[in-house]
Amino acid sequence: MKPTGLLHQTLVCVDANLGLCDRGKTMEGLTDTAAFATKLKNTLIQYHTIEDDKWRVAKKTKDVTIWRKPSEEFNGYLFKAQGVIDDVVNSIIDHIRPGPCRLDWDSLMTSMDILEHFEENCCVMRYTTASQLWNIISPREFVDFSYTVGHKEGLLSCGISLDWSEKRPEFVRGYNHPCGWFCVPLKDNANQSLLTGYIQTDLRGMIPQSAVDTAMASTLINFYEDLRRALKKA
Questions:
Q1: 217 and 86 Cβ atoms separated by less than 8 Å
Q2: Does the first or last residue of the chain, that is N or C, have fewer Cβ atoms within 10 Å of its Cβ?
Q3: Please, which residues have CB within 8 angstroms of residue 38's CB and are 6 or more apart in sequence?
């Protein structure tokens, strides 16, 4: 899976923690996209094994629980979200991973473009999000590497932001540190699935940290609500 075309000219990988490229180095130096994807996957698996006592509850409803802990990637939080979804794994992940279906139901996402396909389960996408908290948080733009892969009896859809040189002045460029969604069938009911997400987003810009924390927890709750509604219509 070698990056081609426009990616050779304008993408920069900025997450040195994944050990695949140095800050400021172009994607031309990233000749092994499979290795990049594997390291990303392994980072998410590491998050998935963090002990329960390391997490603090940030928000809870009857259907979803959101936890958080200090991120090791930036001066913010790593959020964990978990809830049961009344559908099968493949259908849930098909709604979450990059594609036209995502825009139909995710109320936070306002646009999405696939910039590069490496193979069916691996791509680079650019997307924008709506303003939040009564416009305290203005619209954001992200450029993410996305990878979907089987994990144990379910699926993992994960991603990380890349530094894309083309910036649009109407958006603040946000950054997603390693993030992803694990989805596995329930042992006693294969038509229900446990969806667990790990999100650590640096929204950037001049925003009070308390506003960021409130927005992230509420956004994750809304994500589950939107997804459940979409799956019922499908």
A1: no
A2: C
A3: none
Unique residue bearing structure tokens 């109320």 = 107
| Residue entry with tokens 């193979």 | 119
Residues in the chain: 234
pLDDT at 13: 36
3-state helix, strand, coil in the chain (%, to 5): 30, 40, 30
By the 8 A CB rule, do 224 and 96 touch?
A: no
Contacts of 151 (CB under 8 A, 6+ apart): 41, 45, 182
Q: What percent of the chain has pLDDT over 70?
A: 85
- Dump pLDDT digits (tens) for 91-128: 999 999 998 788 899 888 989 999 888 877 999 999 99
Q: Which of 89, 106, 102 is nearest to 194 (CA)?
A: 89
At residue 209, the 3 state secondary structure works out as: helix
The Cβ of residue 206 has, within 10 Å, a number of other Cβ atoms equal to: 5
CA separation for the pair 63, 174 (Å, rounded): 28
What are the b/e assignments for 159-186, b being 16+ CB within 10 Å?
A: bbbbbbeeeeeebbbbbbbbbbbbbbbe
- C-alpha distances out from residue 23 to 18, 44, 162, 201, Å: 11, 21, 11, 19
| SS3 state at 11 | strand
Specify the pTM: 0.86
234's enclosing H/E stretch is none
**Nearest-CA neighbor of 221 among 107, 54, 89, 98?**
107
